Amino acid sequence: MSEHLHHVHLFCSDVQAACAWYRENLGAEICYDGEFGGARNVFLRIGRGRLHLYDQPPRGTPGGAVHHVGIRTDDLSALGERLRANGVPVSGQLRDFGAWKYLMCMAPDNVLLELFQVDTTDLPPGVGDFFRDDTDAPRRA
Asked: CA 10 to CA 80: how far, in whole Å?
């Protein structure tokens, strides 16, 4: 038996605008756009991750228990430049902690994104294990 986190599901007040935002800024690919479970749903791929957009305004308090969604990149500087060129406000400057650096920005419907780049070989074992995926170099002994 094996489990893994597959996708994040977001309510969207304007699903068309949200799709355009994720495509233009993060290179999202639309895999499906249609009725699923009785409502319009759009399934996106962003790299190896997935985002599920639901055509319904967000409910309750903004964010609820979710603080942010993390998006990993292999070129944070270029992604930051693309966002700024597209008119996306990026909060503050790039925060650089050596092996890990990040930027924050708001996506549609006030979804806070952490855009980050990480070198898993230069992090403490527990932290490196958290960020490591199948594209990273094997853990050092």
From this structure: 23
In a domain, 88, yes or no: yes
User: What one-character DSSP code corresponds to residue 134?
Assistant: T
The number of folded domains in the chain is: 2
Tokens found for residue 14:
């304007």
**Domain span holding position 97:** 67-131
> In 17-27, which positions are buried (b, 16+ CB within 10 angstroms) versus exposed (e)?
ebbebbeebbe
How far apart (Å, rounded) are the C-alpha atoms in residues 113 and 110? Answer: 9
Co-location of 79 and 124 in the same domain: yes
Sheet holding 100-107, edge to edge: 69-72, 111-118, 100-107, 90-96
pLDDT digits (tens, 9 = 90+) for 118-137: 888 888 778 777 787 766 65
Q: Which of 18-27, 38-47, 52-61 has the lowest mean pLDDT?
A: 52-61
HSE, side-chain direction, 13 A CA sphere, residue 16: 0
